Amino acid sequence: MKMNQTINNWTDITLSSLNDITSKIAQILPNILGALLILVFGWLLTKLMLFLIKRFLKVIDLEGKFRKLKQKTFLNGIPSEINMTRAILSVIKYTFYIVILSVVFNVLGWDSISVEVTKLLAYLPKLFSGIAIFIAGLYIAGFVKQGMLSLSGTVNLAGGRFISQVSYFIILIIISVTALNQAGVDTTVITNNITIILGACLLIVTLALGLGSKNIVGQLLQTFYTKKYFKVGQYVTLENGVEGEIVAMDNIYVSIDIKNEILVIPINKFSQESNKIKKG
């Protein structure tokens, strides 16, 4: 009798356990199936997006633009075997994977993991915007550098290459700090130190330019006013009595046709003489 009762108790316990297990499986099975479907759909969507983005990057010739950027900036030291398209696609791919896993963890009810992944996803836009600011800054710094080189070449400014390099690195430092700040990095200490250093450098450069460029500024003003009053095609009488037609004029020389000869005069000397314009 007791034996039968014991067997019945075991049977009840076993059936109750099986019912509990079956009930729990029935509860989580839809979540598991939903998570699997999300994984498959997310994987297919990622493949499609990567294909479209790869085609787009090929159309805009990203590799060619990156090579030009390397030539104009300090990125020229980056090994040539690095494929920029592949790097961007890898970043996008793993970002999609993180998003998919976050959704899967949410569906499965793994809240603690889902919260941490969500925090990572919330940080990614800041990181990418910081990278975008840095890349845009490289273009701006390179453009300013080339502009300074061209200007110094036009006015024959000694030390123009040095000034353009200094301008380039100042802009690069400012852009780098801005990018780090956008990415969420505390740049207070860096900013304070850089402000002091840049202030000292700018003071030195300002004094050097102010003391060493007086003649250049004078030449620029002479050139400006000379071009304002004298034009190509005018007949002029020089201070020494020589007459001729102005056939060319640039920032350095004035060329005058004197019968069968071309007289070339430095424009600063031409502007200092009492030259006359012939009427008619």
TrEMBL record:
A single MF term (Gene Ontology): mechanosensitive monoatomic ion channel activity
TM region positions: 32-53, 87-108, 120-141, 162-183, 189-211
Superkingdom, taxonomy of origin: Bacteria
Keywords annotated in UniProt: Membrane, Transmembrane, Transmembrane helix
InterPro entries: MSC_TM_helix, MscS_archaea/bacteria_type
UniProt protein name: Small-conductance mechanosensitive channel
